[in-house]
Design goal:
elongated; 428 residues; alpha/beta; 52% helix; 5-stranded parallel sheet; Rossmann fold; Elongation Factor Tu (Ef-tu), domain 3
């Protein structure tokens, strides 16, 4: 809550500063141009805020969770698109109002005659493409690797937009304090990305020197990869967290995929378990032992640190069992584990879950059957866990299943603060 409030306060303070600099610059143009400039400033501020959200700074990640930060990044991204669209339209129509040109030719004229405008047009085009592929209908149809590669072009758009602001931004150049402010905003946002996504991962990987120590098939389409390295007892990883894994083979070194730890870290090994869902995850089965690994993380707030009650319920769907299995190993107190799959053959790591449950005195329920009727409806959850309202609930699985379970928990009256879940939909 403190971290979330801090982010809101940071955005509010900066919005107030942007508005004050805008008003201090005065209004020397028609109303459309004035409103267009204000929309452009709002878009620039939201773009900088987006960078902070996906900078992967440990302090925010541990308190908020990568999934929520990524969700905010996504919605902020649509805010950026709409404010920048308003900026382009209002500025173009504003200048067209005082010239003999139609809006389209006015935009072409501005791009050809005003320094920095062409860069802004290119940046907006790039953002439109990234926004389109990030929409749900497109995201479901793209492999993670393809979507991630396209998304990286956002950074080129950010640089182009910043140089446009330097070249053509009236408010940017209106006063020395305004200029210093915008340099600080962009410097802070880009600096956060540099530290969180370059400096910290490079330092951590240099220290731990990770390599693949074993590759173990769990089923026809699921494989576990064991990773070892130096001083792993000093790596601040917890059960329930995930890494972005980059396996440095000649054909896959450039791809990074998010996989949860499927076992609690023991100071000697890290283990991930993945189902073949794309080229990157399918290739894990063929990794040679000894392959160097570059891992970014650990990320996520889906850990035992979020507990508010001494007893818990762990609900897993499909391969979402991986962080749940690790959490069961780490959690103290009585636990009830509910594993939802279509059929028994889909129950990855079920043997390990059963053994862990026996060792820890936990209850384990394997729930099978088709998605409809809903096997985890409120009545069924209440039957399996009569005291569910007095427990923490940890949930991980496919989005439709998670949405249904969250609805059931709400209907049963489980307090929101006791429901913990992680959605792995990374951006950037």
């Amino acid at each position: 809550m403190v971290a979330r409030t801090g982010l809101y306060a940071l955005l509010a303070v900066n919005a107030a500063a942007v508005l004050s600099f805008f008003l201090a610059a005065g209004f020397a143009s028609n109303a459309l141009i004035v409103l267009g400039r204000l929309a452009g400033l709002a878009g620039a501020l939201l773009m900088a805020f987006q960078l902070v959200l996906v900078a992967r700074l440990p302090w925010f990640d541990r308190r908020i969770g990568m999934d929520r930060l990524t969700s905010w990044h996504r919605w902020t991204g649509f805010g950026v698109l709409w404010t920048l669209l308003a900026h382009v339209v209002l500025i173009t129509f504003g200048y067209a109002e005082s010239s003999s040109l139609d809006p389209l030719n006015q935009l072409v004229d501005l791009a050809g005659t005003v320094r920095g405008v062409l860069r802004a047009v290119v940046a907006f085009g790039v953002l439109l493409v990234v926004g389109t592929v990030s929409a749900r209908f497109a995201r479901r149809r793209l492999a993670y690797e393809t979507w991630h590669f396209i998304h990286l072009y956002t950074y080129a758009a950010v640089v182009l937009a910043f140089t446009h602001q330097i070249a053509a931004g009236t408010t940017f150049a209106s006063s020395a304090p305004a200029t210093a402010y915008w340099y600080a905003v962009w410097g802070g946002a880009l600096g956060a990305v540099l530290v969180g996504r370059v400096v910290l991962p490079l330092r951590r990987n240099r220290r731990h020197r990770l390599t693949v120590s074993a590759v173990v098939p769990e089923s026809d389409d699921v494989v576990s990869v064991y990773v070892t390295g130096r001083d792993l007892d000093l790596l601040p990883a917890r059960a329930g967290q995930f890494f972005l894994w980059r396996f440095l083979t000649k054909d896959r070194w450039w791809q990074a995929n998010p996989f949860s730890l499927s076992a609690a870290p023991d100071g000697l090994h890290l283990r991930l378990t993945a189902k073949a869902a794309g080229e990157g995850s399918a290739s894990l089965r063929h990794l040679p032992v000894g392959t160097r690994v570059f891992a970014e993380g650990p990320y996520g707030a889906f850990t035992a640190l979020r507990r508010t009650r001494p007893e818990s319920v762990l609900i897993a769907g499909g391969v979402g069992v991986t962080p749940i299995r690790a959490l069961l190993e780490d959690l103290r107190g009585h636990a009830v584990v509910i594993y939802r799959v279509a059929e028994e053959g889909d129950a990855v790591l079920y043997g390990e879950l059963a053994e862990l449950a026996r060792a820890k005195g936990a209850e384990l329920h394997l729930v099978t059957g088709p998605a409809l009727p809903d096997r985890l409806a409120p009545a069924e959850l209440a039957r399996l866990v009569p005291d569910i309202t007095g427990r923490d609930v940890f949930l991980c699985g496919p989005p439709p299943m998670m949405d249904a379970v969250i609805g059931s928990l709400r209907e049963l009256g489980v307090p929101r603060r006791q429901v913990h879940f992680e959605r792995f939909s990374l951006a950037g």
